[in-house]
Write a structure and sequence with these properties.
The chain has 246 residues and is an alpha+beta fold. It is 24% helix and 32% strand. It has helices at 6-12, 82-88, 97-115, 133-137, 196-199, 206-221; strands at residues 2-4, 27-38, 41-49, 60-61, 64-66, 117-122, 140-142, 148-154, 163-171, 175-178, 188-195, 232-237, 240-245. The strands form 2 sheets. Strands 1, 2, 3, 4, 5, 8, 9, 11, 12 and 13 form a 10-stranded mixed sheet that branches. Strands 7-6-10 form a 3-stranded antiparallel sheet. A hairpin with an 8-residue loop joins strand 8 (148-154) and strand 9. It is globular and about 50 Å long.
Length: 246
């Protein structure tokens, strides 16, 4: 466990106003860090949030967002790897296997909605859920076996928005369909593939920089990102921001 100062905690939510009153309960969310190996470099996909957004305007981020109820009722081509599911259900809150599956699916859905990349396998797929119609239209069955759980972070209390975010990673070759012009929501603009070292120098939230540093270290030890790797977990404990390992 590694302690951080109060200043470090504040930096993680730079630009967010402090919310008075009872602390909000963090909502489950998921983010996908999509990687592409080119020669000796590993590139990461990032997009810039619109300046009009109240949450982290103008920052470069990974695609991601809240887990929706419909995410728990989507059929998949392949389930989570057992090593990944085990770590997802561990830690505070102890999510059920069904909830862990929904959280992972939300990372895939958000990646489609925000950047137009459909992760899974080509094949017949049907659903009545509106947010997943793009997969049906393009013949892609979402698959969870390609995801690696690489980090978790909970927004500190007394912020205007709080999330319990699980960070996943996948490779560009896991994308079954790549839509031109980005995703249907257009939440991210200026999509760029950056070498990991350059991404850490971009205008990114501080927690994003910390996650990138952790991922860079893991890739140095395990270039293939095999299942079951150590997962850093950042949260506030007794007014100290700590790093634990799941």
């Amino acid at each position: 466990m590694e302690g951080m100062t109060k200043a470090d905690v504040d930096k993680l939510d730079k630009g967010l106003a402090v919310r008075s009153g009872r602390a909000l309960r963090p909502r489950d969310a998921a983010t996908l860090i999509l990687l592409d190996r080119q020669g000796k470099d590993v590139l990461v996909l990032m997009g810039r949030r619109h300046a009009r957004h109240a949450f982290m305007p103008g920052k470069y981020v990974f695609p991601g967002g809240r887990t929706d109820p419909a995410d728990s009722r989507i059929a998949v081509g392949a389930p989570l790897r057992g090593e990944e599911e085990k770590k997802l259900v561990a830690g505070p809150g102890r999510a059920s296997a069904a909830r862990a599956r929904a959280i992972a699916l939300s990372a895939i859905r958000e990646t489609y909605e925000e950047v137009g990349l459909l992760i899974g396998r080509k094949g017949a797929f049907s659903t009545a859920k509106r947010d997943w119609q793009g997969f049906a239209e393009h013949g892609v069955i979402p698959s969870l076996d390609v995801l690696r759980f690489v980090a978790r972070a909970i927004t500190p209390p007394n912020r205007v928005r709080r999330f319990d975010t699980r960070f996943f990673s996948a490779w560009r070759h896991d994308v079954a369909v790549e839509l031109p012009g980005g995703g249907p929501t257009n939440e991210l603009e200026e999509l760029v593939w950056l070498p990991l070292a350059d991404a850490r120098k971009a205008d990114i939230p501080d927690i994003t920089g910390m996650i990138l540093e952790e991922l860079e270290g893991r890739l140095a030890d395990d270039p293939l990102l095999r299942p079951g790797g150590a997962v850093p977990f950042f949260r506030l404990v007794r007014n100290r921001f700590v790093r634990e390992v799941l």
